Amino acid sequence: MCDTAGCAVEPAAPGEGAAHNCASPTGSVPASHGFWFKELTDKRLRRGTFNSVEDLTTAITTWTDHWNKNPKPFIWKATAENIIVKVRRGRTTLNQINSQADH
Questions:
Q1: Could you state, in chain order, the average pLDDT of each consecutive group of 10 residues for the chain (103 residues)?
Q2: What H or E segment, with its residue span, contains residue 93?
Q3: Mutual orientation of helices 33-40 and 53-69 as an angle, nearest 10°?
Q4: 37-45: Cβ within 8 A, 24+ apart
Q5: How far apart are CA 86 and CA 66, in angstroms?
Q6: Which whole-number Å values give the CA distances from 53 to 1, 43, 67, 79, in the listed order?
Q7: pTM above threshold 0.85
């Protein structure tokens, strides 16, 4: 998982931004972090009761260890065209809400 607060920041070359060196769950890429956190939340955190931060940390670590032993790649099921249609629909709705709020 990538937490920029816990990442090592590499010195930047002149004219470039600093580089973050983050570790990801085995078998994942940054685009699938949202999927990974959803899996963690749905399959472990919502099902548990944690009486302390230590209990929560242990649950996350145990779940992560299990995930890393059998990682599942994120597979896109939507086509690019379907995603673009949904984004356009969302923007239209947001613009309508914003124009109503301005009046």
A1: 45 50 50 78 88 93 90 82 94 91 73
A2: helix 80-102
A3: 120
A4: 37/1, 39/67, 40/64, 40/67
A5: 34
A6: 18, 18, 21, 40
A7: no
What would the DSSP string read from start to end of 53-92? HHHHHHHHHHHHHHHHHS-------S-HHHHHHHHHHHHH
Planar angle of CA 7, 26, 61, nearest 5 degrees:
70
In the numeric block, the tokens 């996350």 are attached to: 60
What is the dihedral sign for C-alpha 65, 70, 73, 77? negative
Residue type, 74: F
